[in-house]
């Protein structure tokens, strides 16, 4: 089956040429993009969708979320809005509620959150464990995550549970817990921060997970300056996320991590993506991550929702993009790029043409996965120009109309 989407007012492809086309058309064939060109030259297809001048972007690639949880942390949020500051300790509230929930309930909650994300234009999504924090519940979270998300990250190193010895717990994260989650996960993450895991404990987790064949990610430099970025770059992590408190040397390390990479061709040695989480920064009243400075220094940037019950209870990547433009001084093109192609880069999914099951996501090009987001607006600029207005008109995920 093929579908022609025509009369696209603005097609923001975010492909290597960064092309934005006017009066464009796209043909989808099965799960792939088969043709892109001017609407006047569009070929015939089995079905036709008239965009009536609306804008089309790649679907959002949300490279950082924590969707496997039960319970509610409204009280903590209210206390924060009354002046308290965020601390990692709140994670324990979600751990208790998550452990108490049955499998069916936890799955239902996670699926609801994925559906909410898709309804707002997300077509590819990573999610993490991290609210189980014992072998049984981390393995269960990983299994449920594998059934609802495109990419799963093991975050046993989210918090040392109350009553556990930090070094013994870290050993379990690197041993029996890692073994139990291994069949379900592709990535591992560590919350390297005061109140969570020390640099030395983080190093042990990253080493064990790398040796187990997992790709690496780091929660770093969220609540204060620290070793997160240094460790992420040293271990060749795919991304370091949050990055609110960076020294010049952190920015330089991140930029230099990309020096062996040919951005035009997308070849060479990859570095570490800096993932900024604007909704989290607002919701914790933290200083915004220096996205402008990172881009200017040559760092590859992603924007993600960080949807979780503590610091960022939103799955709206559009909201994050809006904030990045209005508050972080990014252009609309840069912000959309970071939330599509940048997210794919952070998940090693930005390239791959017509490889079965591994088509690129996050950009619109022939042979890439047909993940499209049509706005109720003639241009992507409206995402920032009309903040807070739900602008998703239609969504295709792997060629299937999802919204
Ligand atoms: N910072 C660590 N983890 C989450 C928050 C988890 C929570 O508070 O429940 C984050 O990415 O912000
Ligand atoms: Zn997170």
Structural description of this entry:
- There is one protein chain.
- With 403 residues, this protein is of the alpha/beta class.
- The chain folds into two domains: 2-58 and 354-401, Urease, subunit C, domain 1; 60-330, TIM Barrel.
- The protein is built from 15 helices and 18 strands.
- The protein has helices at residues 74-81, 91-100, 103-118, 135-148, 166-174, 176-181, 199-211, 228-234, 248-256, 278-283, 291-297, 317-328, 332-339, 341-346, 382-385, and strands spanning 2-12, 20-29, 32-38, 47-50, 55-58, 60-62, 122-128, 151-157, 187-192, 215-220, 239-242, 261-262, 267-268, 273-276, 301-303, 372-375, 392-397, 400-401.
- The strands form three sheets. Strands 1, 2, 3, 4, 5, 16, 17 and 18 form an eight-stranded mixed beta sheet that branches.
- β7, α4 (135-148) and β8 form a beta-alpha-beta unit.
- α3 packs parallel to α4, α5 (166-174) packs parallel to α7 and α12 (317-328) runs antiparallel to α13.
- The chain is globular and about 65 Å long.
- The two termini are 18 Å apart.
- The mean pLDDT is 97.
- N-(iminomethyl)-L-glutamic acid binds at residues 66, 90-91, 94, 191, 219, 222, 280, 306, 308-311.
- Keywords: Cytoplasm, Histidine metabolism, Hydrolase, Iron, Metal-binding, Zinc.
- Residues 56-377 form the Amidohydrolase-related domain.
- 4-imidazolone-5-propanoate binds at residues 73, 131, 158, 222, 311.
């Amino acid at each position: 089956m093929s579908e022609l989407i025509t009369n696209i007012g603005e097609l923001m492809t975010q492909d290597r040429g960064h092309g934005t086309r006017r009066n464009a058309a796209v043909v989808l064939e099965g799960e792939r993009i088969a043709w892109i060109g001017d609407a006047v030259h569009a070929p015939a297809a089995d079905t036709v969708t008239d965009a009536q001048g609306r804008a089309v972007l790649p679907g959002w690639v949300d490279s950082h979320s924590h969707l496997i949880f039960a319970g509610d942390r409204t009280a903590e949020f209210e206390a924060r809005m009354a002046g308290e500051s965020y601390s990692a300790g709140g994670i324990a509230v979600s751990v208790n509620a998550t452990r108490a929930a049955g499998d069916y309930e936890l799955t239902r909650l996670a699926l609801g959150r994925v559906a909410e994300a898709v309804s707002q234009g997300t077509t590819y999504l990573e999610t993490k464990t991290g609210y189980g924090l014992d072998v049984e519940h981390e393995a269960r979270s990983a299994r449920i995550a594998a059934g609802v998300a495109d990419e799963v990250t093991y975050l046993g190193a989210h918090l040392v549970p109350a009553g556990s010895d930090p070094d013994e717990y870290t050993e379990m994260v690197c041993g029996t817990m890692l073994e139990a989650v291994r069949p379900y996960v592709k990535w591992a993450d560590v919350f390297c921060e005061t109140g969570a895991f020390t640099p030395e404990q983080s190093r042990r987790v990253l080493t064990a997970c790398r040796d187990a064949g997992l790709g690496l990610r780091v929660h770093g430099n969220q609540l204060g300056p620290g070793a997160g970025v240094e460790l992420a770059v040293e271990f060749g992590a795919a991304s370091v996320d949050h990055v609110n408190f960076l020294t010049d040397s952190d920015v330089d390390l991140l930029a230099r991590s990309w020096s062996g990479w040919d951005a035009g061709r997308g070849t060479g040695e990859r570095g570490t993506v800096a993932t900024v989480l604007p909704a989290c920064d607002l919701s914790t009243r933290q200083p915004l991550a220096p996205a402008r400075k990172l881009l200017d220094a040559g760092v590859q940037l992603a924007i993600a929702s960080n949807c979780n019950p503590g610091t960022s209870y939103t799955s709206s990547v559009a909201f994050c993009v809006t904030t990045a433009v209005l508050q972080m001084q990014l252009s609309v093109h840069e912000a959309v790029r970071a939330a599509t192609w940048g997210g794919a880069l952070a998940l090693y999914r930005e390239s791959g043409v017509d490889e079965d099951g591994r088509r690129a996501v996050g950009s619109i090009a022939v042979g890439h996965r047909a993940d499209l987001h049509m706005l109720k607006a003639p241009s992507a600029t409206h995402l920032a120009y009309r903040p807070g207005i739900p602008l998703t008109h239609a969504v295709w995920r792997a060629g299937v109309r999802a919204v």
